[in-house]
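Entry type: protein chain
Record version: 2
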Amino acid sequence: MNPIVFAIVVVVVLGLAGGVILVLASKFMAVYEDPRIAQVTECLAGANCGGCGYAGCADYAKAIVENGAPTFKCAPGGDKTADAINTIMGNATDDRPSLRATVICAGGENCGKRFDYQGIQTCAAAASIAGGPSACAYGCLGLGDCTRACKFDAIHVINGVAVVDRKKCTGCTACTVTCPRHVIQMKPIAPQPAVKCSNKDKGALVNKTCKVGCIACGLCVRNCPNQAIFLKDNVAVIDYTKCNGCGTCVSKCPKKAIQWVEGTPRPIDAPVPAHEVLKTRV
């Protein structure tokens, strides 16, 4: 046989054999993937923010389909995304929480300093130097680690303390994970009071370090008509299962450490905004 013809025949035979092998392999060795995974992934926001607790949107979609993970954890997508996923999965509408980030500190410029920090301008770095420059060992350091972690431009440092824009916040929790002082917590999205202090020191010491720190005086506890506030570790704590947002605690707090969660921190001498005046909330 002509060597050229022989070579062509060999190549054709090898090609056919390889094709047959690939067809058989695709049939008998294929890894099945539930088509709903792709459908759920398409519904997700695609931000890959990690707020759901998974590595990314694809991993979260796989967990929903294969492991029955909750469908409401995509904070950027919100209720519409959860409803779309429930439709794909054939679930009934679920009772999902509506939470947004809240900074449990109103210190900033209202709080004293122990020393002038000139190091790397991150909260993590500052906290590693003798516990940080702030006179309060529990409060916001105000160097913006949370701002850099937020992909939605929903948190900024104002007057030395982090402030959340709840209209932009999606509840992804990226800021809560980043904060070295753990002063950012998830609170109900409804306009309710929040104790904007994390200081566990006794009242006399708090008075020396911060103008707006909770001194555990107990006025809020004694005046709350719903018994929705109690003291723990020298700080007032609100039980949101009992709180109806009446605002009594906001008006009674002598240090203005209790504020509406949609409010912004203010200097201690500034007038109380209208929305923080005691009022009946429907």
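Comment: Strands lie at 99-103, 155-158, 161-164, 184-188, 193-195, 229-232, 235-238, 258-260.
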